[in-house]
Amino acid sequence: MFPRKSGVKLPHLKSTAAMPPVRLGVPAEVIIPMSMSIGKPAVPTVKPKDHVNVGTLIAESAGPVSAPIHSGVSGTVKKVDTILSSNGSYCQAVVIESDGLQTVDEGIRPPVVTDYASFIEAVRNSGIVGLGGAGFPTAVKLDVKDTSKIEYLILNGAECEPFITSDNRTMLDTPDDIKEGVRLFEKYLDVKKIIIGIEGNKPEAIKKMTEVFADDAGVTVKTLPESYPQGGEKVLIYTTTGRVVPAGKLPLDVGCVVVNVTTIATIARYVKTGMPLVEKCVTVDGTAVKKPQNVIAPIGTPVSELLKFCEADEEAIGKVLYGGPMMGIAIPDPDTAPVLKTTNGITVLNEKDGYKPEATQCIHCGRCALHCPMNLSPLEISRAYENKNVELIRDLRVDICFECGTCSYVCPARRPLVEINKLSKVLVRELNAKEKQKEAEKK
Ligand code: SF4
Ligand code: SF4
Fold this sequence. Notes:
Blueprint: E1 22-23, E2 29-33, E3 43-44, E4 51-52, E5 57-60, E6 69-70, E7 75-84, E8 90-98, H1 116-126, H2 138-142, E9 152-157, H3 166-173, H4 175-188, E10 193-199, H5 203-212, E11 219-224, H6 233-241, E12 256-260, H7 261-273, E13 279-285, E14 293-298, H8 303-309, E15 317-322, E16 329-330, E17 345-350, H9 351-354, H10 367-371, H11 378-386, H12 390-395, H13 406-410, H14 417-442
Parallel strand pairs: 1-14, 9-10, 9-12, 10-11, 13-17
Antiparallel strand pairs: 2-8, 3-5, 4-7, 5-6, 7-8, 13-14, 15-16, 15-17
Helix pairs in contact: 3-5, 4-7, 11-14
Bound molecules: iron/sulfur cluster (SF4) (2 copies).
């Protein structure tokens, strides 16, 4: 059964939970990648020497699963360049020199939203993607055509990764935006049952959401167990509704739509002001950070600016990650890696915590399988990977692994299980494509 009650107890390390966000000064330059969400990279609409303002469209979406991009600073386009992203692939980026004035684009005005279609169109134009880290264009997720299929709207306030507290701050600092977002969903998507799932380690947020929604009988605030990974979409659906999303199916197939709490607040702000997604609240924390903080920065701000602002100890840094220590992606060069639409945390670990010990022989303890929330057997997948048996990897359903990192975390032999799963997924995709091509050639 996928998923199941499992997971692991982690230290929360949420030292910034009580800290309202502070604004970073305007960076001298922003590097805005055209690929910041799942789907096709956006297509730049600006060229060198163009002047842009805050909220100016700088790239349009390149198809149904893509999202437009807007500038978070006012200034001049320096270049449209190719950059190496942290996932190892090259993508285009618009580099803008800021003039420091933060002049707002004069075309910014609230969208006219009167019905389901205009609401979806507004979400599409806002450039909003899943802000919990998934990066799926939100308009695509909500464009369900038949809204009667949505039985539950589940707001993801789990924020189960250690260190990160930006969603917690959204719930505490801008609860009215979340409430307005819920009202929009109730009105335009005809959602009647809303569950806000929050991990039990955020009592203040649970209290705030309970107070704010006390007058809405459709909303339930559910305290989630303090067991990682409560924020995984399928895990959250199971914990809040008892429903199981079958392998290969979508949440909507079991009547659910899951939206992150910061995403819904950002939608509400866009509908109110017309300002698209141009900045992010990012938790900067970790064992090499002297002054952990929640920082609001324009999208495209070099990560190194945030590290300076939070007094990361350059001598001590062993590893810098986009996201938390469980699912985070390593940043090779913080000077060239920017804050992305999906960045909710930057974790900076010292040499000791960033060190990855040598893997030793598997001792067949079974912990990786026991703790996997998707009921997978990471050990068997890694064996099949070593034997280059891609059919078996596929049969072992590596496709439903959502890379939560629990298996690697609990493995006493420090086997690189999640890394092997990522590589295995690539092999399965290649095999599927080959088979599809063969089928097509037969016809
Ligand atoms: S990374 Fe994948 S295989 Fe490992 S515990 Fe998480 S879901 Fe299971
Ligand atoms: S947790 Fe590690 S040592 Fe234990 S069975 Fe899995 S791979 Fe082997």
